[in-house]
Structures are given as C-alpha cells and as structure tokens.
Amino acid sequence: MQRIPFAEIQATLAGVLLKLGFSSARAQHCAQLFTQTTCDGVYSHGVARFPRFVAMIHNGNVHVETEPTLVTHFGAVERWNGNRGPGNLNAWASMDRAIALAREHGIGFVALADTNHWMRGGTYGWQAADAGMIGICWTNTLPNVPAWGGVEPCLGNNPLVIAVPRAAGHVVLDMAMSQFSYGALESYSRRGQMLPVDGGFNAAGDLTRDPAAILASNRALPIGYWKGSGLSTVLDMIAAMTSLGIATHQLGSDPLQEAGTSQVFFAIHPASLGPADQSARIVDEIVASLHRSPAAQPDAPIRYPGERTLQIRAENLVLGIPVDPDLWQQILAL
Amino acid sequence: MQRIPFAEIQATLAGVLLKLGFSSARAQHCAQLFTQTTCDGVYSHGVARFPRFVAMIHNGNVHVETEPTLVTHFGAVERWNGNRGPGNLNAWASMDRAIALAREHGIGFVALADTNHWMRGGTYGWQAADAGMIGICWTNTLPNVPAWGGVEPCLGNNPLVIAVPRAAGHVVLDMAMSQFSYGALESYSRRGQMLPVDGGFNAAGDLTRDPAAILASNRALPIGYWKGSGLSTVLDMIAAMTSLGIATHQLGSDPLQEAGTSQVFFAIHPASLGPADQSARIVDEIVASLHRSPAAQPDAPIRYPGERTLQIRAENLVLGIPVDPDLWQQILAL
Known about the structure:
Two copies of one chain form a homodimer.
Chain A: E1 2-4, H1 6-19, H2 24-39, H3 50-58, E2 69-74, E3 77-81, H4 87-105, E4 107-116, H5 122-130, E5 134-139, E6 145-146, E7 153-155, E8 160-164, E9 171-175, H6 182-190, E10 200-201, E11 207-208, H7 211-217, H8 226-243, E12 259-268, H9 276-292, H10 309-319, E13 321-323, H11 325-332
Parallel strand pairs in A: 3-4
Antiparallel strand pairs in A: 1-13, 2-3, 4-12, 5-8, 5-12, 6-7, 8-9, 10-11
Helix pairs in contact in A: 1-2, 4-5, 6-7
C-alpha cells in the first residue's frame, strides 16, 4: 500500500470527473465522498470503486450532470427522482432533504427512485449524525443472495445504515444483508482461508465456511438465515413502493448494469423530543455499558458500530490514506 | 392441544382482567390482543404469556389502569410516557398515534418510555398495515444476548417489526436480534434435538448447535454474529434516547422484573407519496418474484415474512385455537 494525502486523492479524482463533464463543485464533492470513505477505513467502497464508477459513466448508466428532482411532497415526506445521476451525490442530496424536513417536523422521510449505487452507505449516516440527527437509510441492490429456502440469488444485500449522533464519536451501523460480500468471499478464497463462520451453501446444499464452495454454488447466506432473508425482502419493498421505483427482481446480475436503484432516507431530530444533553447522556451510558461488559479476549474489548472510524480517519489524515499502488496507477490513467 | 373458540378464550382472559381491576373496554382489548396472537399461530407470545402478565400485575410492575400520557410533541413526532401500564395496550395506543400523525404528515413517529413488554411485536405491524400504513417499531428488552466479542448477556434481543400493507395479505417481519430465543433453546434441549444452525457458544467458547451447551454458557448468538450485535445496540440507543427512557443495561436478568422498557413506532403513509395502486402493484410483484424463485426443496417454496399468518388464522377461527391443556387449566384458575 502506498499512503497518499487526502487532498491529492481528492484532487486527482476531481480532475477525472471534470474531464467527464462534472461541474467544478460537483466534481469536488463527489471526489471528496470517495476519498473520505477510504480515509475512514472502508477500503472496499471508496477509491477502490472509482474505476467502476467511471466505467458506469462511460457505459451510460451514470449521468454526470443530472440532479435529483422533487416529484411529490406531503408534510414531512418527499419523493424524488434520481434521474440516474451519480449515486453518492444523489444520496447526499436526499439525506440533506431528510435532515431539513426533520428540522421542520421532528422527522423527515425521503424516497428516491431511479438513482445509482451510493457507494458507502455509512456516508449518509455520518452526514445525518454530523447534523445532530438520527439517520436511517437503505438501498436496494441487484439480486445477490438467495432467499431462505431458495437456490438462486433473488434478494439484494440491501445495505442498511443506522446512525446515532454522539459528541465523542457517532455510532454508525452500516451493514449489508449478506453475511459476507462476494468481494470478501473472493478475498478469503484467494488467501486460501476458511471463513470465520458459515457464509453460504456448498454444491451439496450444506452450510459451509469454504469461500470457494460458496462462490461456486452462488449461494451466499443472508445474516441470521431466515431472518436476514425476511429483512432484505421488506427493505426492498419499502424502498421500491415509497419511491415508486425499481425493485431488486427487476435488476440483472451484472454490477456494471446495476442502475436505477431505489433508496429511502429517514432523519429524526432528537432535540425535538427532549433536552439534547439528556439523550446524549443516555447514548454515552450505553457505550460505557458495552465497554464494561467482559470480553472473550481481554485484548479485544467490545466495540460499538463505527467505533474505530475516528481513529482510522485521524491516522490516515496524518500518515496519508492507504491505496493499492496498482489501483492508483489505474486511476492516474483515467 | 385442545382447541378453544376465539370468543371463549377472549372472554376468559377478559374475566381475569376485570377481576384484576381493568375497566371493561380495556379488559376486552387486552384479552383480544393476547387471543389474536395465539390465533395467528404465534403460540409463544399469546395466551402462553398470560400467566406471566398476570404475575407482573400482582408483583406491581404492570399497572392495570394507567394509560400513556403525552410528554412532548413537535410536528410529526411525539414522546409519551407509558406509566408502566399494560405493554400491549400502551404499544397499541402508540402505533395508533403514529398512524394518526402519518395521516397528517405522511410519516409519524412516537417514542414511548416507561412501558412494559408488548408481547407479540408483530401485532403493531398488523395494526399499521390494516390502516394502510408501512409500520416499523421496536422495543428494547432486558439483556439476554452477549455482544459480539463478549461473554455475558449485555444486549437485548430487541425485537424489530417491519410491516408492509398488502391487499392479499400484509407482509409482516417480526424478528428478535438473537438467532434463537431462550424459549426455543429450552424446547430443542427438552426434545434432545440439535439446532438447525449455530445458536451460540459452548463453555469452550466455540460456536455450537447444542442447545444445552448454550443454555449452560448463557451465550446465545446475535443474528449475523457481529452484525446483529451492532443492530441490537443501535435499536436500544434510538429507543432509549428518543423516549428518554430506560436502556437495556439498566434492566436486570429477571423477566418478572423487566419493567419500564423503551419503544419506538413509525408509520409511513404510502398514499401520501403516490398512487396507492402503483405502490400496491410493486409489492405484489416482489412477492411474485419470490414465489417464482426456485426452492431448494420443491415442496417448500420461498415465503415472504408473515405469509402463513392468514391461513393459520383462518384455520384457528374455524377449528378453535390450539391451547395447551395445562396452560388452560392454569388460566381458568387465575
């Protein structure tokens, strides 16, 4: 890994985006979101995704200069069309609207149709929490997990993000509905390692920790078996039915053609429900209770979701952000 | 199992509640919610819970005639105090308020502090869906699952309910954050059966399907390992911080003392976002796509969450509701 300063990565990505027709402000923002994701240690969904993002601009699925448009609104809810614009900018704009609605109504809800891959979902959780809001959002995806009892991928891994604002570091859960992503399965398989827990089925239909067997059967496991299968289903339903957009079953299996997805964004303003110092204390006490609880391995204390982010972010800002040299060469050539 | 008509069960339970000081209308409603749960096939959380519910009236944790009171409201959000009233009536009243707020604002959110066990969470999902709403609600609970990396129960299993209205049968997910409840572990253990998938850790700290080993170690597994651990954490945070109520770590391990829990209720009115026939078609098409997807066992097609409920309900209304004879004698003696 080479370590590259945040500003250099952002400027490089923005330069590519400018050449592709982005306006200056949108290029900077889009590049910043990619860079921040890698800076925060979510290496799978930041700079590493940039080449695919560019490929989807070239293949016509991502429209660089379209912005989301408001279709309908009622009270604290709005429905937007993403017009196949850049997924991260669309999602950012949508959470921004949910936050504005929450300031006005205590809660805000935005449904977004016809958008594109939002890259790292946690980004919009951090966005809400930075605004002092509880943020909840999810997206549907192409089918990549069999439903419980099924043998072919028919559910999306539909990442779900839930963020809680906290002065000492937001709590941000960002989890897909599959136990392991295909990227993770490939990475274990390349290293010749078994998964730490069952991750899917082998060709005989038995649960297995063997990543190669799961890649061969194409039967990854939803979290909690039947439970994650159900959760993925209802998340897809709500995203598609409120945005009047595309559902998972309408998407094919090619990630380069995963366009037009549906997303929802909730923001809740805790300060509209009571004194902010009181709700903050409650969250801090829950964190303290987790830290007090005995760990199975004394050197691995229990962590809350997102706990390591601020530390990784700080390190990467000081030392430079780790980027794979081949990836970086690939980006410099775009 | 003996089969008892719905009306007879409801009248019997209502009779007990009247003796305990419930007003007539509240006794009927509370008894109806218990009976409907068993009628719907959720045998663990209906009539079977009634003796414990009565015990918690006797031990002073459930106050029969207190109703929830509005503490604060702002736009589409309200905060209520449950005043330790009957958990199912409190939860019903709260989802009712969320529905009313959603009619007015497109979305409604109610946070409820100081309430009691809501029995079957799915009840309030069905309630929202019957009103044409998407319903989302969850409760925190006493600590009964270790966090990922921990050895002592410090998280609640915090059931999460997500309901989608559908003319041909609502889609209702009702799932706890533990892979198996302690009731289920005990039931497998009594029958001398292994669990179908890993359900927790044995004394050596290894994942196991042996229910007796998990009961001995007290280390049940959250769904999706680290993922359900994180999800349980943020659900507890949001319930406690918005209601300004009790968090899981403040509750002990005795179910008879599990009083004062925190809950949240969301309702979203799909009709406020677009034509109802369009959103209904989207949901029906997702259901159809699941039914089309090939099943691992041809006689066990893929089901959506709650799919069997209407059929079980209809059967039990015709044939009578199955109740364990010993349980029924116990209830008749109350």
